[in-house]
Design a protein that fits this description.
This protein has about 220 residues and is of the alpha/beta class. It has one domain: 3-Layer(aba) Sandwich (Rossmann fold). The protein has helices at about 15-30, 55-60, 75-85, 100-105, 120-140, 160-165, 185-200, 215-224; strands at about 35-40, 45-50, 95-100, 115-120, 150-155, 170-175, 205. Helix 1 crosses helix 3, helix 1 (about 15-30) packs parallel to helix 4 and helix 6 (about 160-165) packs parallel to helix 7 (about 185-200). The longest helix has 20 residues, at about 120-140. The two termini are about 20 Å apart. The mean pLDDT is about 95.
Length: about 220
């Protein structure tokens, strides 16, 4: 749905939980030397400025990443996530927050591959621009992957997931996180997951969904 912009919600408590789990999933995948493919069906913009008009409108980060920012007594797994966010803010000021594509980019290795999808035209362009800068920086540091490490497509990842599975490496981490602004997204997630598991049952699939009072949300987990 083209009305959803995650910039209004960047860094909120749901983002903290989602990206904390994502970091741990990447650490698990990285335990093996074999390369893997990360697939993000609804990527967003990749990086968010917390001082932007959108982010400050409701300032949801104040009850998300905000309370953790100056904490040094967090458990080690949470510190893994927190250190990633702090690394993109070298001034020490909480200015930028990573989306799931940025988390994946930082946690994956040169031999791993990222396949990113975003339907919103503005966010898709921002996502591509952000990764163009990141790849240029890597090249300056002498880090070059063999082949195209990151492929970004403007589109709905639901329709492309099936064709990407199984990946050449036979290892994959898939994040499915649509806006859920329309009820049909719940069905699309179930259908996409059914197809994906049918083609590649050994993949790791992370499905994010909102905890709301609406019936679709309350019954969603039981129907997966």
């Amino acid at each position: 749905m083209l009305s959803y912009r995650h910039a209004f919600h960047a860094g909120n408590h749901a983002d903290v939980l989602k990206h904390f789990v994502q970091v741990q999933l990447h650490l698990y995948m990285n335990q093996k030397d074999a390369a893997y493919t990360y697939i993000d069906t609804h990527s967003g913009a990749g990086v968010y400025a917390l001082d932007s008009t959108q982010a400050t409108k409701n300032a949801e980060f104040d009850t998300g990443i905000g309370p953790l920012w100056n904490r040094s007594d967090v458990p080690a797994p949470l510190a893994d996530y927190l250190n990633l966010v702090k690394a993109m803010n070298p001034s020490g000021k909480m200015r930028y927050y990573p989306g799931s594509p940025y988390v994946a980019d930082q946690m994956t290795r040169l031999e791993d591959r990222l396949r990113l999808f975003e339907l919103h035209p503005a966010d898709s362009k921002i996502l591509a621009d952000n990764f163009r800068k990141a790849e240029a920086h890597r090249a300056e540091q002498g880090e070059r992957a063999r082949g195209r490490r990151v492929i970004i497509e403007r589109g709905d990842g639901f329709g492309s997931l099936k064709a990407l599975l199984p990946p050449p490496s036979r290892r994959a981490l898939v994040l499915i996180d649509p806006p859920y602004e329309v009820k049909d997204d719940y069905r699309k997630v179930r259908d996409a997951l059914d197809e994906a598991l049918g083609r590649f049952p050994s993949g790791i699939y992370a499905v994010w969904y909102p905890v709301l009072q609406r019936m679709e949300s309350r019954q969603f987990a039981d129907r997966l």
